[in-house]
């Protein structure tokens, strides 16, 4: 049952992310967060930042060229999320990937995209 729900969530995330894509931009992958999702495209990171306490949400877009540092918090055996930090000159963005999602895969894919842009 959990597998089908996860597959359904991925489909919903891909559909939602598609509405934020610009011309010639390709969606590479989506990952579930504690509240919503993060998407990697061939140009940027897009995530929807929703609030627990209100109905407001914010779509955040970070071009790979603006990312200065990424960090993955490891060794949290009892945690329900795997935090990833994306740092830009102006802000630190903390993404709480759902435990069981491939946080290391997200970190590697994001690193690959950043390194590709730097070349």
Automatic annotation (TrEMBL):
Entries under SUPFAM superfamilies matching the protein: PH domain-like
One family name in Pfam for this protein: bPH_1
Gene3D superfamilies the record matches: Bacterial Pleckstrin homology domain
Top-rank lineage group of the source organism: Bacteria
Domain Bacterial Pleckstrin homology residue range list: 7-88
Protein name (Swiss-Prot/TrEMBL): Bacterial Pleckstrin homology domain-containing protein
